[in-house]
Amino acid sequence: YFGPTFAANQFFAANGFPCPDQQNPADHFLITINADFDEDHASGHLAVEKVVDGLSESYKSSEIYMDVKREIAAICGQEKGLTGKARNPKASFITQSRVLVRRSFINMYRDVGYYWLRLGIYIALGFSVGTVFYDLGYGFGSLNARISMLMYISTFLTIMAIGGFPSFIEEYKVFQWERLNGHYGVGSFVVSHAISSTPYLLLLSFIPGVIAYSLVGLQREYEQFTYFALVLFASMLLVECLMMIVATIVPNLLMGIITGAGIQGLMILSAGFFRLPNDLPQVLWRYPIYHLSFHKYALQGLYKNEFHGLMFPEYVGGPRVHGDKILKDLLQVEMGYSKWVDLGIIFGMVVVYRVLLFSIIKITEKVKPIIRAIMFSAT
């Protein structure tokens, strides 16, 4: 039956299957034509197959069926070849990105666990760092304290982006469903997530950064603080994208968190703090992990930003030593380029990670059906 809703009851009643009082018509229609129900229904003792055949023949000879055929013929005759010349109804890349940015931004705003909880924890950590390293000064004891404080900021503060992994998983699931329906492309998803998350990551880097920076008493220059906040921001952007990559490869919540923490743990271990760069084993740790770790560039950039232009005692009561000598001899920082190059490398890695995220999603879409087919044929 395909016709007006109000005429459905009349159609079934005219063929000997009226809908009983106080019964849902839709349920009655399904019971009448469905062989899975008990035989004791409105069709009496007739076989369900005969009931369906009888209703089908009755419908084909009805006026409703003739009206439907005339309407179809009229539509087809309006414009021949319409489907071949039809314009692609898919929205443009800009429209897709704009809609996704708005939706993702609202979702991030409403989901407390996405950024707001992290912001609260970051503020608490900012006060904690500020009070533990409060007013360092420029004595001999402030040297190691500065190094430790900058290490904590550049590594353990950014690793907390793992807390947003459950939200990444849910967002990626929604993307997969809508991607299968052809609503938008991979590029729109990657770009929109980067744009919508940027304001929140700015808050996460700026507010705790102001608190920690002012309480610790680092260099009181606008340029130094700006660089400090930018390093935090770039590091959080990069870790955010890293966790998105993990979410596409390892969609399991627990395994994804463990994988993300493990990757960052390897990067932190080889960043040049726990073991100085020249002391790292050449195989694997110095080449390539040390140079691939963004923590290396964040840490060295923060070192240059803070120690350049300062003087520290070489030992208690001893002569004062320029900060550049400490950077070169004590911390083994690469001095052949400025701190802004370190920052530029981190932002460049952010772009590379986004491109990598795009590529992995595209590859996964092609590889997963092949893997499923192989597994199906094997079983």
From TrEMBL:
Pfam hit, one: ABC2_membrane
Domain ABC-2 type transporter transmembrane, residue spans: 95-307
Annotated transmembrane regions: 115-137, 149-169, 189-213, 225-247, 253-276, 340-361
UniProt subcellular location: Membrane
Membrane-topology annotation of the record: Multi-pass membrane protein
Taxonomic superkingdom: Eukaryota
InterPro entries according to UniProt: ABC2_TM, Plant_ABCG
Keywords assigned by UniProt, alphabetized: Membrane, Transmembrane, Transmembrane helix, Transport
GO molecular function, one term: ABC-type transporter activity
GO cellular component, one term: membrane
Membership in a protein family: Belongs to the ABC transporter superfamily. ABCG family. Eye pigment precursor importer (TC 3.A.1.204) subfamily.
Protein name: ABC-2 type transporter transmembrane domain-containing protein
Species of provenance: Ambrosia artemisiifolia
